[in-house]
């Protein structure tokens, strides 16, 4: 949120072996953590929270007491000289789209982790939950433009590739425009899908685009924030720079009115997101850096189920 930067001569730096090893170890660490969570906590909850697209005929079996008489297959029963009923199974395969805010404000964080790091961990858990349920996953990075789109696919290698991108992707822009991300989503998907949007939602004017997306898809917003997004620390006069617009101003963080207006701006962003998602018929989770996001996700899945 607040930072200073010296202008330096740009130089192209190739990743060293140590850097690649570091990225690889982080990917592996996230894989182990996410697999443990999904295997022990989220597998059943995720499956129950997000239903398949319908029921498919599987086979017939001999009728037994308690079976639904509506599913008796009279043609098979006549041929087999007995009573047989149909068995159906859920058409499980779903497409999961994960939209990640890569704007400059996502790099802010003062409590154990940045908002970007929190979003990365949540994305990893969601991706492995989808993998365990044989669902396809897709990843989209957005700022005020669609920065990168990874099409839907299945498998462990695909999920690990997405995690690697979450850890290393560097956006071209610093600003946010959620409308463009939602419009891109609506243009590339024909069937109803599960859509997770991870952002601090420090944006305006996305109400209609979200309503259109939520009418077609099952949309869940995950609003991430830091405690110092809401409360200015008492450190006196300081120069601050907006990470997205580069606008610089001086603030007296000990001034009561300055602290009040700062907090009101944060509360407006939170409240606007709550109201916008509710009007659109979509769900919204609000999770702070350093918070137990595992508990928040589990409670959300159970509530939906």
- Please give the alpha-carbon distance between the first and last residues: 37 Å
Tally of structural domains: 2
Reported for the largest beta sheet, the result is: 6 strands, mixed
> What are the low-pLDDT stretches, counting only 5+ consecutive residues below 50?
1-17
**Strand order, sheet with most strands:** 5-4-3-6-7-10
Helical proportion, percent range: 40-55%
**Any idea what the radius of gyration is?**
24 Å
CATH architecture of the largest domain: 3-Layer(aba) Sandwich
Briefly note the CATH topology name of the largest domain: Rossmann fold
At the fourth CATH level, what is the homologous superfamily of the largest domain? von Willebrand factor, type A domain
Strand content: 15-25%
Topology order in helix (H) and strand (E) letters: HEHEEHEEHHEHEHEEHEH
- CATH class call of the largest domain: Alpha Beta
Question: Structural class of the secondary elements?
Answer: alpha/beta
The best one-word shape is elongated
Average predicted local confidence, pLDDT: 84
Number of strands: 10
Number of helical segments with 4 or more residues: 9
